Amino acid sequence: MRHDLEVCADASDLASLGAAFVARLASESVTDRGAFTMAVSGGHTPWAMFAELAAASFAWEATTIFQVDERVAPDGDHDRNLTHLRACLEGLPVRVVAMRVNDADVEMAAAHYATQLPERFDLVHLGLGPDGHTASLVPGDAVLDVEDRLVAVTEPYQGHRRMTFTFPAIARADQLLWLVSGADKRAALQRLVDGDVSIPAARVNARASLVIADAAAR
Hey, what's the torsion of the CAs at 185, 188, 194, 199, to 10 degrees? Predict the structure, then answer.
């Protein structure tokens, strides 16, 4: 798919530009439909963006946030994306629909999470790994070929199994927002914008996509 690309100076500008884009889209969605639905990936890049959004005027009470992916780890664990997401959103009147990665049957929990997803997302946030992964769609994992489920569970990757959106779930996005920071992402970013489907990220499809990258990544 085609990706619009915006390059900024550094990680601070990345957070500001990302927050401004999300706020603008949320305002439009709430005006048009009375609600805003967003799915958020893990990683460090969204935390600074959420810190800026938390300090701004934002329709939190009309917003529902879903998780794009999550590590199978205990509640409150530093490796859990939800731990950091809750810290960023503490005290805000926003609904967060968490992935139940601690259920005894994590595959069944993934199937249940899929039933909670909306038919369309106003926005899905994605990151990009140096190996070209996005969400927890990592090179070589069987989840890359899943087409009949919206949410699946990976094999261990960097120490954890993960629950993740599949490509069909990401395709429910009306808009993708990628936040890409750091020189270690440079090669993967080039392959993404070139449409090199040998990396998982370049296999993503949606109605529209904006990539915001800092100068180090570009």
Answer: -150
User: E strand or H helix at 49, and its extent?
Assistant: helix 45-54
Quickly tell me which residue has 């779930």 as its tokens.
Answer: 169
Contact criterion met (CB below 8 Å) for 137 and 83? no
Structural domains of the chain in order of their starting residue, each with its CATH number: 4-210 (3.40.50.1360)
CA gap 85, 45 in Å, rounded: 12
Q: Identify the three-state secondary structure at position 125.
A: strand
- Give me 144's structure tokens: 């890359």
Show Cβ contacts of residue 137 under 8 Å, excluding neighbours closer than 6 positions.
143, 144, 164, 165, 166, 167, 200, 201, 203
Exposure of 64 in the CB half-sphere (CA atoms within 13 A): 12
pLDDT digits (tens, 9 = 90+) for 115-153: 999 999 999 999 999 999 999 999 999 999 999 999 999
Query: In the numeric block, which tokens belong to residue 128?
Result: 């990009």
pTM: 0.96
Report how far residue 196's alpha carbon sits from residue 60's, in angstroms, rounded to the nearest whole number: 37
